[in-house]
Write a structure and sequence with these properties.
five-stranded mixed β-sheet, mainly alpha, Cyt_P450, Cytochrome P450
Length: 376
């Protein structure tokens, strides 16, 4: 018992002393960057907000208080200067994914968490045609089928109060499984996400005979398709519906436009504005400076320092977008705002979320735009 008490006392004290010494020695020259509270001294600040699922908001507030560069962990710098986007995530950048990606990967990496460039390039080469915009557009009919199931399920429950977020999640899982595996999970039909999947031998095998992907990798890629595709789409649909419901004038205007023209694209400005204001991926995805260091927005960043651009803060950057915290779909018709919207509204880049995962393909990013157009 005495030994346990001793360890419980000494271990925290040792960690505190180590953190203070590292902060004072400052081998990475990071004390020049301001930090909120104790974030520059200890990971406890980040852990606290991560534990309460509010880290994205804490980082957002830190930048509003400290400016375009904030030290949000002892060895983690967060940038909101728009130039940092290409410096960190650009195709020519030497900055790579943080080791934390290895922690979330299983025995096999998927295209999203592969940190090795050669492995990532190989996966991208194999998977690129599946997630291309052109290929996804040819599969609209499969999404139409599942969309019909969603409408049918909601019609059958018109006299009930429903959690639409739950139903959107069922819908996106069915849609992504129909796209990825040529058969839906039938969550919408049962009204539940509890199911037993049977895979018949040979029915879902890969056809890539020249450069086959091992079965374990196929499982990993299937998992990222379901996770990245379904969650982002469900979040986008839920947030758009919430914002329209809480802005009745905007909703009334949208209804008038739909009734007048029945144009599928009429809802896209509202949807794009929803993605800007409430992006499904709100955090800054971590990258690590290489051995030779890197220069970001004119600042030299030593090797091993983690860097990121928080998507929520960039999408609400007051220097890029007037009234950044307001829901204003009309900004998508404003010629003075369109250049910044197209270049910096992160969820809306031409390659969708490609920049945040370095050539990552995200079928959900395309589905998230197909769905509202089809739903009209």
């Amino acid at each position: 018992m005495t030994v346990i008490l001793f360890l419980l006392t000494v271990a925290p004290l040792t960690l505190i002393i180590y953190s203070v010494v590292e902060y004072l020695i400052d081998t990475k020259n990071l004390r020049a960057f301001s930090s909120p509270e104790i974030a520059g001294l200890s990971d406890l600040w980040a852990l606290r907000y991560h534990w309460t699922n509010s880290r994205y908001r804490a980082v957002h507030d830190a930048h509003r208080m400290l400016g375009p560069i904030a030290r949000i962990q002892p060895r983690h710098l967060s940038f909101t200067d728009p130039r940092a986007l290409k410096d960190i995530y650009g195709y020519s950048s030497s900055i790579m994914k943080a080791p934390s990606y290895d922690n979330i990967a299983g025995e096999y990496h998927d295209v999203a968490n592969a940190t090795d460039r050669a492995e990532h390039s190989r996966k991208r080469r194999i998977m690129s045609h599946v997630s291309s915009h052109k290929h996804i557009l040819t599969m609209e009919e499969l999404i139409d089928d599942v969309l019909g199931s969603l409408v049918k399920a909601l019609d059958e429950r018109l006299d009930q109060q429903l959690d639409l977020r739950y139903w959107f999640n069922l819908f996106t899982f069915d849609a992504i499984s129909n796209l990825a595996f040529s058969q839906p999970f039938n969550f919408l039909e049962t009204g539940s996400d509890l199911t037993l999947c049977h895979y018949t031998g040979g029915s879902t095998n890969s056809v890539n005979l020249t450069d086959p992907m091992p079965y374990g990798e196929q499982v990993a890629e299937a998992g990222i398709m379901l996770n990245a595709g379904s969650d982002t789409t469900a979040s986008g649909l839920t947030n758009t519906l919430f914002l329209l419901a809480t802005h009745p004038d905007t909703l009334a205007k949208l209804r008038r436009e739909l009734y007048a023209s029945m144009a599928p694209d009429a809802i896209m400005p509202d949807f794009n504005e929803s993605l800007r204001l409430r992006p499904p991926v709100a955090i800054g995805l971590p990258r690590v400076a290489p051995a030779e260091g890197s220069t970001i927005c004119g600042h030299f960043i030593p090797a091993g320092v983690t860097v990121s651009v928080p998507i929520l803060e960039l999408n609400r950057h007051p220097g890029l977008f007037p009234r950044p915290d307001g829901f204003d779909p009309d900004r998508w018709f404003d010629d003075t705002q369109l250049p910044n919207l197209k270049e910096y509204a992160v969820e809306l880049l031409q390659d969708e979320l490609a920049f945040v995962e370095r050539f990552n393909m995200n079928p959900g990013a395309y589905q998230v735009r197909l769905t509202p157009r089809q739903g009209t």
